[in-house]
Design goal:
Layout: E1 2-6, H1 9-26, E2 31-34, H2 41-52, E3 62-65, E4 67-69, H3 80-89, E5 99-100, H4 109-122, E6 128-131, E7 153-156, H5 159-165, E8 178-181, H6 184-188, E9 192-197, H7 203-211, E10 229-234, H8 243-247, E11 250-252, H9 256-267
Parallel strand pairs: 1-10, 2-3, 2-6, 3-5, 6-9, 9-10
Antiparallel strand pairs: 1-11, 4-8, 7-8
Bound molecules: 2-amino-2-deoxy-6-O-phosphono-alpha-D-glucopyranose.
C-alpha cells in the first residue's frame, strides 16, 4: 500500500485529481468508481476546474458510484444521485447513460443490487476506484462486520453512520436505515484504488485500517490486500499513524498483512 501525507485537504484533492487525470490520459474510456461525502467535494471541484480549463476529459469515461440510500429518489436533496448530478455529472456535461448509481427506489432492491454488480462486470470492471472512509472504518456503505468477499447488496446502516450523515438531510428528516452498496469484494476487484481521507475525525479509523489486522470489523483494512492501492491523507487524518509514516510525504507502507506474509515466507 502506498501512503501520501500532505498538509491540507486542498493539496490532497489536487493529488487525487492528478491520479484521475493520469488514468484518463492513459485510458480515456476508463471505468471510474466514485464516492460521495464531504471529503470528495474539493476533489470534484478540482476535476470540474480542470475540465473547464480543457485539461481533463471525461466524455469517454463510464462511472459507477459506490452506493445509494434505499428509499431516496434522484431528486431528494440527500440522495447520492443528486449529489453526483450537481457536483460532477452536470458541470462536466456527462451523458446520463455513462453514469451509474444503484437505484434507491427500485421495487426489488436485491435484484437491483445484483443487476448493478452485473453492469460493472459488463463494463469490464473498474479501472480506478476512488474511496472515502467512514469514522468507523467503512468503505462505501460496508459497515463493520461486512464480509471481505461481499458483493453489491442491500445493507443496514450503523447508528454512528446515520448520525454522521444526518446533517445532509432536511431538519427533522432521519436518514434511511438501509442502502445498496458495492461489496468489499467488489471494491477490491478494481484495478487501482485511491482512498482520500481528511480531518482528525478519520484518524482512528485510518490507524486501524493501515496498522491493524485485516478484519471485517474494519472494512477499510481489506485494502491492505490490494496490490495497487494509494491512500492520500492530510496531516490531521494521519495524526494517529506512527511518526515514521506520518512525517514522510510519500511512503510504501508495511501493513500488518505484509508482516504476516513475510512471517509465513520465513517459516516455509
Ligand atoms: C458515506 C459514504 C462513503 C463515504 C463516507 C465518508 O457514508 N457512503 O462512501 O466515504 O460516508 O463521508 P465523508 O467524506 O462525508 O466523511
Amino acid at each position: 500500500m502506498e501512503l501520501i501525507v500532505l498538509k491540507t485537504p486542498e493539496q490532497c484533492a489536487n493529488a487525487a485529481a492528478n491520479l484521475v487525470e493520469e488514468q484518463l490520459n492513459r485510458k480515456p474510456d476508463s471505468v471510474l468508481g466514485l464516492p460521495t461525502g464531504k471529503t470528495s467535494l474539493p476533489l470534484y471541484q478540482e476535476l470540474v476546474r480542470r475540465h473547464r480549463r480543457g485539461q481533463l476529459r471525461l466524455d469517454r469515461a463510464t462511472t459507477f458510484n459506490l452506493d445509494e440510500y434505499l428509499g431516496l429518489g434522484p431528486d431528494h436533496p440527500a440522495s447520492f444521485a443528486r449529489y453526483m448530478r450537481e457536483r460532477l455529472f452536470a458541470p462536466l456535461a456527462l451523458p446520463p447513460g455513462q453514469c451509474h448509481l444503484p437505484d434507491g427506489m427500485a421495487a426489488d432492491p436485491c435484484a437491483e443490487a445484483e443487476g448493478y454488480e452485473a453492469r460493472i462486470r459488463e463494463a469490464g470492471g473498474i479501472d480506478l476506484q476512488l474511496l472515502g472512509i467512514g469514522i468507523n472504518g467503512h468503505i462505501g456503505f460496508n459497515e463493520p462486520g461486512a464480509p471481505l468477499d461481499s458483493r453489491t447488496r442491500v445493507v443496514n446502516l450503523c447508528s454512528s453512520t446515520l448520525e454522521a450523515n444526518r446533517s445532509h438531510f432536511p431538519p427533522g428528516e432521519a436518514p434511511p436505515a438501509q442502502a445498496i452498496t458495492m461489496g468489499v469484494g467488489t471494491i477490491l476487484e478494481a484495478r487501482r484504488i485511491v482512498l482520500l481521507a481528511t480531518g482528525r475525525a478519520k484518524a482512528h479509523a485510518l490507524h486501524a485500517a493501515i496498522s491493524g489486522p485485516v478484519s471485517p470489523e474494519v472494512p477499510a483494512s481489506a485494502l491492505q490486500r490490494h496490490p495497487n492501492c494509494v491512500m492520500i491523507l492530510d496531516a490531521a487524518a494521519a495524526s494517529d499513524l506512527p511518526p515514521a509514516i506520518r512525517t514522510g510525504r510519500r511512503h510504501a507502507v508495511t501493513t500488518s498483512r505484509d508482516r504476516e506474509r513475510r512471517q509465513s515466507t520465513d517459516r516455509s
